Amino acid sequence: MVLAVIVVATVLDHVGTDYYSLTPGDATPVAPLVTIKGLATNPHPDRIMLTDVYLSSLTEWQWLIDHFESHIQFVTADELVEPGIPSDELSAQGFLEMSDSKQAAEVAALRALGWRLPPTSAGAVVTGVAAPSPARAAGLRVADRIIAVDGASVTTSCGLVAALHTLAPGTAVHLSVERSKISSSGVITWSAPGSVVVTSGATPKSIGASYCPGVKGRDHSWLGISLEDGVSFDLPGDISIKTTDIGGPSAGLAMTLTLIDELSAGSLTGHAIVAATGTISPDGAVGDVGGVAEKTIAVENAGAKVFIVPSVEVKTARAAASPGLRVIGVTSLRGALRALRSLGGAPPVPLTAPH
Questions:
Q1: CATH number of the domain that 202 lies in?
Q2: Quick one: three-class SS letters along the chain?
Q3: Which of 54, 97, 237, 287 has the highest CB neighbour count under 10 A?
Q4: What are the tens digits of pLDDT across the range 39-54?
């Protein structure tokens, strides 16, 4: 009988599932991860922490055993990727989201301190590649930047959609692409533009009409890529945030608050130990994230006394928190700064005058 159980357990441990587990990760102070050159900085930054979760694919055995553990959330692959996008792109997508989040945090922080930073369009960025698809067959990958189609410049994702919209299936499309390379730790670099030829396919029936203004009806042909607008900003200094092995966009708010704290006088938090989670946009909007219950456990384990979360996540965070953790919900960077002032924090005053 014991042997039979061992055999079953061994078999189950080699059978994969479509499930992933979210478990409490770490709450990490952001300031030690930040390097700033060309701008004056506060030598005594506050302790503001980002928090993450561990995402693990599960075998049948792990799935069974984990149901006896606490503080675990189970999600399916379909909840993590778009339809048609394989789960093997999760890591690359997470690192692209983190790269976007760091840029948004830098811009949002500098704008909050008075800089005017207009965006510059930088092509169409690949966020997912369907499998099978013409794009995958041609070797396109997550984070590639497409800047031209058949010699015509492309500045946005909708510009690319419009350029491809009327092409017949079977057309050889010549793309000018800045190819991405993602290191094992999540650092993304891009090459000089090169040519990639993709032969378009017939649009699957499951795909509806285009979402782009001025593009009517369903696309005539299909490459099999999901896209976002590429954008760049001319920043007044050189800012680097080292987020080795951390993916996803949920550290955006914590990184933004830390940058504001480092670039301004006084204590932004009133010297409270603060953790934060939430996406950030360049204009300061805060968006919801996943795994908030597990992140709440992580920030309590790290000694945080205040946890700032997206407003829609307050109920979840408070349900997981002990009485010693104060949970504050916000929808914007402005709201987060207002909450910190209510804790005794100083209004941000830039150490370098904006220009």
A1: 2.30.42.10
A2: CHHHHHHHHHHHCCCEEEEEEEEEEEEEECHHHEEEECCCCCCCCCCEEEEEEEEEEEEHHHHHHHCCCCCCEEEEHHHHCCCCCCHHHHHHHHHHHHHHHHHHHHHHHHHHCCCCCCCEEEEEEEEEECCCCHHHHHCCCCCCEEEEECCEECCCHHHHHHHHCCCCCCCEEEEEEECEEECCCCCEEECCCEEEEEECEECCCCCCCCCCCCCCCCCCEECCEEEEEEEECCCCCEEEECCCCCCCCCCHHHHHHHHHHHCECCCCCCCCCEEECCEECCCCEEECCCCHHHHHHHHHHCCCCEEEEEHHHHHHHHHHCCCCCEEEEECEHHHHHHHHHHCCCCCCCECCCCC
A3: 97
A4: 999 988 999 999 988 7
- The C-alpha atoms of residue 156 and residue 147 are separated, in whole angstroms, by 8
Q: The whole model's pTM is what?
A: 0.90
Number of domains in the chain: 2
pLDDT tens sequence across 300-348: 999 999 999 999 999 999 999 999 999 999 999 999 999 999 999 999 9
Quick check: 20 and 56 in contact, CB under 8 A?
yes
Residue ending a domain, among 163, 198, 232, is: 232
Domain-ending residue, one of 174, 207, 232: 232
What digits encode the pLDDT tens for the residues 265-286? 989 999 999 999 999 999 999 9
More confident residue, 110 or 63: 110
Q: Does one domain contain both 244 and 338?
A: yes
Per the structure, the complete domain to which residue 252 belongs is given by 2-76+235-342
What CATH number is given to the structural domain containing 258?
3.30.230
Q: How would you class 244 by CB atoms within 10 Å of its CB: exposed for 0-12, middle for 13-18, buried for 19 or more?
A: exposed
249 and 212 fall within a common domain:
no
Q: How far apart are CA 324 and CA 255, in angstroms?
A: 24
